[in-house]
# Entry
Amino acid sequence: MHKPPQLILWYALSLSSSLAVAILATVVQTQSKVHYSHLAESVTSGSQLGRLIPRLQALFVSQGASIDAARAAAIQEVAGLLQLQGYVLAIQDAFRLSVGIILVAIIAVFFVSGVRRTPTQQAAQPVAAEKTLTDEADSARDEAMLAV
# Structure
């Protein structure tokens, strides 16, 4: 069965957008882990986040938590901050990737030469479209006759 060009174009756009979303989601997921690892490596007892852990631990102890539970909660809070920052950096990477691809596509458009039509080709195009509609109507009528 012959599909109209608009339907084929719609399928192509749908498929390409789904593929782009999947690629960007993969980039965000992998880069989030990479950035988290780099950020976690930078946390030491002398770093700003490293100095935050004893403060958070003291806060949790003052709220009634045990020392071990307070330390674990403080470390968990800092790890959550690192994960959040890693995710933000991964989103930034995905944005930069998509902007780069768009810029390449815009530049490529300038190098693509368009097909130039002569006036006779432009006049012949509506006749071809009418012929296609007539062929479709004939095939629809034949299918309806077979169904009866």
Remarks:
- The chain has two domains: 5-112, 118-148.
- The radius of gyration is 30 Å.
- The chain is about 85% helix and 0% strand.
